[in-house]
Design brief:
The complex is a heterodimer.
Chain A (H helix, E strand, L loop, with lengths): L1 H17 L1 H16 L12 E6 L17 E18 L2 E8 L8 E4 L3 E8 L10 E2 L19 E7 L4 E6 L5 H6 L3 E7 L9 E10 L9 E2 L4 H6 L4 E4 L12 E4 L3 E10 L4 E6 L3 E5 L8 E4 L1 E4 L3 E8 L4 E7 L3 H6 L2 E7 L3 H7 L32 H20 L17 H5 L1 H10 L4 E4 L2 E4 L9 H13 L10 H10 L9
Helix pairs in contact in A: 7-10, 9-10, 9-11, 10-11
Chain B lengths: L7 H20 L11 E4 L2 E3 L10 E3 L2 E4 L5 H10 L42 H10 L7 H8 L12 H12 L27 E2 L19 H5 L3 H4 L7 H11 L10 E2 L3 E3 H5 L2
Parallel strand pairs in B: 5-6
Antiparallel strand pairs in B: 1-4, 2-3, 4-7
Helix pairs in contact in B: 1-3
The chains are: A alpha/beta, B mainly alpha.
């Protein structure tokens, strides 16, 4: 086949060379065709004007929209570094990065741009690295051309032929390990007519991580090849770590803002069921392609090594939670982020969403208590109160903060506060019991009534002692220390819910 | 010459080097056996390399291998006698600009390195010159990989999960500012120290994996080891630890130096017994 094509090409060339007279006619004809708007113009026929150095940003920031309406040469300077960073509170990991953090720097170019890519590998790196950009048309997506040993820099170039939002990643053997260590990011190729203006653009990228220790186990955690091959992730996170988009790191916007999320998924293994709790996407460009968008989407699939663009207008105030709706990943492995919408007209906000307008008791099943299997692992007990607090913090983030919140403030009418809590400071025994046995029925905390269910949490005595000591040490609480022995005593009492209903 | 299937320009450098090194070794022929007790005899055998689908074992003849990677102290003695390999004097053709970058100056490694630690930031040309000077050579990839399969008790521990984990842990750990002596490691069953977990090491034919075989599968290491290629053209897809070595080797050129790349030397048995 190859040979035939080649021969044909040569034959055509020869034919063209032999008949210069008719060629002139052909050119004239072509020119007149170009003037008719229906005919599609080859982007490569447009001239390249000027040169610029790409602005690269760390997530969740996105470089400014491109206003230029011509092709140009864009120089991208990307440095690969191997760095130790936080995976979760108390948990560190050696990430391999494009630009110093996970996900890698966001690159923004325009359809037709000539991209001159410089990939530098830091001299302190142990590994050779390269880059495969899904935006590249060409063998390996740049992988072979950009293969770079530590202390060196490779240069290659490509023309961004197709608009879209593309994943890039390292493709050095073993590829799975390079990706599992965080080597991925997004490159946006804006269509030549540009993108409609929006108020806020954010960069969110999911990734799954595999560590020697299980979720929350403290210290510098090495990569686990075994778990990666089993696709048994310990962490599933947005933007490289647990909490990268929550609390103070939450995405900020105003009511009325049009928001555009560039959502990527580095994998290496898991497909994301991307969802924003309390928000409906007005437009989703599925799989990152610029076709006509899907409208009114609740949850969109983002494949490993793929992307999506989600657009929506914030119509009311509040916190909107980003999750992978494969939901245990969200609450047990870290796949949670937040967009905080503030401002707007209070009346209007209430019309869109009222909040709770009434609260009455309805409990036909008598408040069943959830049981979770007892955790059998027994790490060495904490030696000091400080150690107890440090370990308790990690447990708190992992187990408690989803309901009681990272700052202990709880959620009004649903989850009672732990900060300055009279319930907590009033009785250690009751607090221990709540964690060990669970809690159901009405309780009063700081003058507010709560009537929901707290499940028994399946933590061992040591963990309960640590987490409670941490809670007591925080947010204006009385600083009590809870010991495993105290927990043991309360556990033995087999206390049921304080409402005495059964 | 079989190792120089690289670029044609490279071949010329290589020839040039061999000639010039030849001159030095005749000048300094007294050095020969002082390091001999620092070598271990590796019995002949065979192994199946991972970078090809051809499962025919490759034979490795008996040879001598340095127990330790070459130290800064040994390298310092070498550059004292051969000023052309000193940091400020080395030709840029044979060593890139990070050559010995962790040394303070030409004849003083300084505080950032231990004299008994392995020398790093040395090029393949430099390593070969050092070996030649000691009447040795660099081990081939086959020889190196053959020995590297061993742990403390087995000649082939590659199926042992712990063996692999040690290597993977090294990949995951950030390199220390100052590398420790290889003697802080436990020797493997041959009496060789620190094949894993300390540094990468040069091989005589580091860039040769692409031309060893006869089948299409061997036609290009890059193609074999990038992305999906690695999954279909290798004998052991779980041996990620070894993949990394082949990937690393294939990213190098003879003049490259990096902060975690050193070397140790080998010698043919016939050659040493005739002396």
């Amino acid at each position: 086949m190859k040979h035939t094509k080649k021969l044909l090409g040569i034959a055509l060339l020869t034919a063209t060379a032999l008949i210069p007279v008719s060629c002139e006619d052909a050119v004239g004809q072509k020119k007149s065709e170009e003037k008719t708007p229906a005919k599609e113009v080859n982007i490569l026929d447009e001239p390249i004007k000027g040169e610029e150095i790409a602005i690269l940003t760390d997530a969740p920031k996105v470089p400014p929209q491109i206003t230029r309406r011509h092709r140009t040469k864009v120089i991208v300077n990307m440095e690969v570094t191997e760095v130790v960073k936080k995976m979760a509170d108390g948990v560190d990991y050696t990430f391999w990065t494009f630009g110093g953090s996970v996900p890698g720097k966001f690159i923004r170019v325009r359809e037709g741009d000539l991209v001159e890519f410089h990939l530098a590998n830091h001299p302190d790196s142990k590994m050779p690295h390269n880059i495969d950009l899904h935006a590249v048309t060409g063998p390996g997506g740049g992988a072979a051309a950009s293969f770079t040993t530590p202390g060196h820099e490779s240069v290659f170039s490509f023309t961004a032929l197709n608009p879209g939002i593309y994943v890039y990643h390292c493709a050095t053997a073993p590829v799975g390990m390079h990706i599992a260590n965080g080597m991925y990011g997004l490159i946006l190729v804006e269509p030549k007519e540009g993108l409609p203006k929006v108020d806020k653009e954010f960069y969110v990228m999911q990734g799954d991580f595999y560590t020697k220790g299980k979720y929350g186990e403290a210290g510098l955690q090495p990569f686990s090849m075994e778990k990666a091959i089993r696709e048994d992730a310990d962490y599933v996170v947005f933007n490289g770590s647990v909490g990268a988009l929550t609390g103070d790191n939450a995405l900020q916007a105003e009511v009325g803002d049009k928001v555009r999320l560039f959502v990527g998924n580095g994998g290496p293994n898991l497909v994301s069921s991307f969802h924003v709790i309390g928000e409906i996407f007005d437009n989703v460009f599925t799989e990152g392609g610029w076709g006509s968008p899907n409208k009114h989407v609740q949850t969109t699939l983002v494949p490993a090594g793929g992307s999506a663009v989600c657009e929506f207008t914030l119509d009311t105030e509040g916190t909107f939670i980003l999750v992978d709706h494969s939901i245990f990943r969200a609450f047990n492995k870290g796949a949670i982020g937040m967009i905080k919408a503030t401002g707007g007209d209070a009346e209007q906000n209430k019309i869109v969403y009222s909040g709770k307008t009434d609260d009455r008791i309805y409990q036909p099943e008598g408040g069943a208590i959830q049981e979770i299997a007892q955790d059998s692992s027994k790490p060495a007990p904490a030696a000091t109160k400080e150690e107890r607090i440090a370990r308790g913090k990690t447990k708190y983030v992992a187990v408690c903060s989803a309901c009681h919140q990272a700052n202990g403030a709880g959620i009004p009418a649903a989850f009672p506060p732990l900060a300055k809590s009279d319930y907590l400071n009033g009785s250690k025994e009751k607090s221990i019991s709540a964690v060990v046995h669970g809690l159901s029925g009405e309780v009063t905390v700081n003058g507010e009534k709560y009537n929901s269910i707290m499940p028994s949490l399946g933590l061992n005595d040591e963990d309960v002692a640590n987490v409670l000591t941490y809670v007591y040490s925080m947010w204006g609480n009385n600083g009590s220390e809870v010991t495993p022995d105290e927990v043991k005593k309360v556990r033995a009492m087999d206390v049921k819910a304080p409402d005495g209903g059964h | 010459m079989k190792s120089l299937h690289i670029h044609s320009a490279f071949l010329i450098y290589g020839l040039f080097m061999l000639l010039s090194v030849e001159l030095f070794s005749t000048e300094n022929s007294t050095q020969t056996d002082t390091l001999n007790d620092e070598m271990a005899k590796i019995p002949a055998g065979s192994y199946v390399p991972l970078y090809t689908t051809n499962k025919t074992p490759r034979k490795v003849a008996t040879f001598l291998l340095d127990k330790l990677p070459v130290t800064n102290r040994q390298y310092l003695a070498f550059v004292k006698q051969h000023p052309r390999w000193q940091k400020s004097k080395v030709s840029k053709l044979f060593a890139d600009k990070s050559y010995l970058k962790n040394w303070d100056s030409d004849l003083s490694p300084g505080k950032n390195v231990r004299l008994d630690g392995p020398v790093t930031n040395v090029s393949w040309f430099a390593a070969r010159a050092f070996a030649k000077f000691h009447n040795k050579r660099l081990p081939t990839v086959d020889e190196w990989e053959y020995v590297a399969r061993a742990n403390e008790s087995l000649t082939d521990a590659t199926k042992d999960e712990k063996y692999t984990q040690v290597i993977l842990n090294w990949y995951a750990a950030k390199a220390p500012k100052t590398l420790p002596s290889a003697t802080t490691f436990k020797p493997n069953v041959y009496g060789i120290y620190a094949m894993h977990g300390l540094i990468w090491e040069w091989n005589d034919d580091f860039n040769n994996a692409m031309v060893t075989g006869e089948s299409r599968g061997d036609s290009g290491l890059e193609r074999n080891l990038f992305c999906a290629g690695g999954a279909v053209s290798s004998t052991d897809v779980r041996n990620y630890a070894a993949f990394m070595r082949f990937a690393f080797r294939s990213s190098l050129k003879g003049s490259y130096t990096t902060s975690s790349l050193g070397f140790r030397c080998a010698r043919d048995i016939e050659k040493s017994t005739t002396q």
